[in-house]
Design goal:
This protein is of the alpha+beta class. 28% of the residues lie in helices and 46% in strands. The relative contact order is 0.14. It has helices at 19-27, 32-35, 123-151, 171-179, 184-187, 274-278, 284-311, and strands spanning 7-15, 39-47, 51-60, 63-74, 79-86, 91-102, 108-118, 158-167, 191-200, 203-211, 217-227, 231-238, 243-255, 258-269. The termini are far apart. The mean pLDDT is 95. α4 crosses α7. The strands form 2 sheets. It has a 7-stranded antiparallel β-sheet with strand order 1-7-6-5-4-3-2. It has a 7-stranded antiparallel β-sheet with strand order 8-14-13-12-11-10-9.
Length: 313
């Protein structure tokens, strides 16, 4: 049987944010890991004013999938069309459109349309794809309101920062240390337990118990996308209570002086957890400081141990 049947879906939400704010959120793919729960990482392959090619890594039915898409952006009509160039089984082909409409009430209606073909048009494949679209579309549309509020300058919930360590050693040794996270319990003092799986090359699921300065232990679960030998990007699927979103990168750059490691964190503070975690008088500013110190300390410790590992080579 050929992949001939085309299936269609449509999901929508009505938001209070202005249409142009919503369009901007949908247009800036590099920010999607902090906007959309399913999106792990996004790279621009080509970028123009109206057309672009992107590569995405995202969760779908609890699996990590990756694909390349072309997008057409029409700011005047508030529409963004997309079409996958390279799909991943059981998807044979997929495309669709974001449609943004100003309502007479002053609110904004957002429609997300998909059309797809399933490999072999097998009923099980069709059902899998429909379930993934339904789950991801609901998560994406549901997250737009909070992201728009952040874009409009509500509480200062978004926090980005980086730390660096210079290494007198080769970049590959640094990368190997960061890649082999299953060895971290023996190598890092703040890591108590790790479960690492990698069924797709260079795409890892990492579950980790991390100790904090006050003696408590946090369990996190992350997807890591590895780019040998210069970059590992990740997104936590299960975050500590103070954070609703946590994404990060390990950047490894070799030059004539050795290797520079940069740890990048981007966090969205969960305001409802601030007083519960930090006490009744705590503020979002307090939470930002706490998260900055805790994440920075652990990532700097990791980089210093990677430095020792590389320099002993």
């Amino acid at each position: 049987m050929t992949d001939t049947a085309v299936h269609e879906t449509e999901h929508e939400i009505v938001l209070s944010a202005p249409p142009q704010v919503v369009f901007d959120l949908l247009a800036e793919v590099s920010d999607w890991p902090c906007v959309f729960p399913p999106t792990v990482h996004a790279d621009y392959l080509e970028r123009g004013e109206r057309e672009e090619r992107i590569r995405l890594w995202a969760t779908a039915n609890d699996e990590v999938k990756s694909w390349t898409s072309r997008r057409e952006l029409d700011r005047g009509r508030l529409r963004i069309r997309f079409r996958q160039e390279v799909s991943q089984s059981p998807v044979a082909a997929m495309g669709g459109e974001w449609v943004i409409e100003r309502q007479p009430s002053g609110r904004t209606r957002v429609r997300l349309k998909h059309d797809f073909r399933a490999v072999g048009d097998e009923p099980a494949n069709v059902a899998w794809i429909r379930q993934a679209i339904d789950r991801n579309s609901a998560a994406e549309l549901g997250s737009l309101e909070a992201a728009a509020d952040r874009a409009l300058g509500g509480e200062d919930l978004l926090l980005s920062f980086e730390d660096q360590v210079r290494v007198d050693g080769p970049a590959k040794r640094v990368y190997d240390f960061l890649y082999a996270a299953d060895s971290w319990p023996e190598r890092l003092p703040h890591v108590a337990r790790v479960e690492l799986t990698e069924t797709t090359p260079n795409v890892q699921i990492l579950e980790m118990d991390t100790s904090t300065a006050d003696g408590s232990v946090h369990t996190t679960r992350s997807v890591r996308v590895c780019f040998p030998d210069d970059r590992i990007v990740y997104k936590q699927l299960r975050t500590p209570a103070l954070m609703s979103v946590h994404t990060g990168q390990w950047l490894i750059e070799e030059d004539e002086r050795g290797t520079l490691i940069t740890s990048v964190h981007t966090v969205v503070i969960e305001p409802s957890a601030v007083t519960r975690v930090l006490g009744g008088q705590a503020t979002v500013s307090d939470a930002r400081g706490y998260v900055r110190e805790a994440l920075g300390r652990n990532s700097t410790t990791t980089m210093r141990h990677a430095k020792d590992y590389a320099e002993k080579a």
